[in-house]
Design brief:
alpha+beta, Naphthalene 1,2-dioxygenase Alpha Subunit, Chain A, domain 1, Rieske Iron-sulfur Protein, 2 domains, seven-stranded antiparallel sheet, five-stranded antiparallel sheet, 6 helices, globular
Length: about 350
């Protein structure tokens, strides 16, 4: 396991700090510790609210071995519930869709979309059985800027108050008008933090994306804003744009890359949103679901399909970069590198990560 001396170079002030050491990414013991200290305690994004627009809509997923389901009940309230039947443990739903209730396929127990038990065949003769005692367990649920978050920790501190400044920075964008498309799913064979690091800097545009992003969004023009909470925001102005006197007054055509720690990643322009959903797995493994969200009137148009293919092409380039990094991190010759001035978001994230890991 890491010690404070192992991460002393990463703890230096920005401008003199290094990246996290290789062990932070490759050690299975670190992975086990961060599952307990981070993923079981922090807020994780499970959906966009437009995916659960109508009463009766649901979306199932697995989170750290927990089969969960996000629902909108008949009163219009959002819930994140366990989808494990209270009777014998069968998983009661999968995928996404629309339903009036959730029915266990094993013994036909039926649950309302708020998790309460609506029916349990032949249980009326069971001694002391009270349907009110057998609701599906419910997890905390918050909606921030249209993103639905949950936490496996019932005592997790509210998320939205800690993202107030980030919300104000994003206020000019029409997030409510954007529609979530079907995800592109990638089974990823490297540590999730390699992806976060890659997503939150434009320095790699000069090589990895030299024919896709660098021509329009040059690395040297990118910069990060100061953060006051569990988030980071990278601004990537278009080529030739003037440098704003106020960093928060970036050119309209800029691309923003945001991270709500630990792993909620999103890219935003005035016309579309792309968000990355990270579902942690075994050490060095995670499932990535990339959602492209255009304006409602652009859904299904050639422009939206072209955008989706561009996002896929960019991520395929990122996979090559992340897999190369993952291989190099396992080399005995590797030593943590000095962060460039273009990599402030990595430093912001690593300070948060080190705090949560007790380092």
């Amino acid at each position: 396991m890491l010690s404070r001396s192992d991460v002393s170079a990463a703890r230096r002030p920005f401008g003199r700090a290094s990246t996290l050491p290789a062990q932070a990414y490759t050690d299975p013991a670190v992975h086990a510790e961060e599952r307990e200290r981070i993923f079981r305690r922090e807020w994780l994004c499970v959906a966009r609210s437009d995916q659960l627009a109508r009463p009766g809509d649901y979306l199932a997923l697995d989170l750290l071995g927990h089969p969960l389901i996000a629902t909108r009940d008949e009163r219009g309230q959002l819930h994140v519930l366990s989808r494990v039947c209270r009777h014998r443990g069968a998983v009661i739903a999968s995928g996404s869709g629309h339903a009036k209730s959730l029915r266990c396929p094993y013994h036909a127990w039926v649950y309302r979309l708020d998790g309460t038990l609506a029916g349990a065949p032949h249980m009326e003769s069971a001694s002391g059985f009270d349907p009110g005692d057998w609701s599906l367990p419910e997890l905390p649920c918050e909606v921030w800027e249209g993103f639905v978050f949950t936490s496996l920790d019932p005592e997790a501190a509210p998320l939205a108050p800690r993202l107030g400044r980030l919300s104000r920075l994003l206020a000019r964008y029409p997030l409510a008008e954007l529609v979530t498309g079907e995800p592109m799913v990638f089974e990823s064979a490297f540590d999730w933090k390699v992806l976060v690091d890659n997503f939150m800097e434009a320095y790699h545009h000069i090589a990895t994306h030299r024919d896709t992003l660098e021509p329009a969004l040059p690395a040297r023009a990118s910069y990060a804003l100061e953060s006051d909470g569990p988030w980071s925001l990278l601004v990537m102005p278009p080529r030739g744009a003037p440098v704003p006197s106020d960093p928060s007054d970036w050119p309209e055509e800029s691309l923003l890359a945001g991270c709500v720690f630990p792993s909620h990643l999103f890219a935003l322009t005035p016309t579309h949103l792309t968000w990355y959903q990270v579902l942690p797995g075994a050490p060095g493994r995670f499932t990535l679901r990339i959602h492209v969200c255009p304006r409602r009137e652009e859904v299904g148009t050639p422009e939206s399909e072209s955008l989706r293919e561009f996002v896929r092409a960019v991520h395929l380039q990122d996979i090559d970069a992340c897999e190369a990094t993952w291989a190099g991190l396992h080399s005995p010759c590797y030593r943590a590198g000095l962060l460039t001035p273009l990599e402030r978001p990595l430093w912001q994230f690593s300070q948060w990560w080190l705090d949560r890991m007790g380092l």
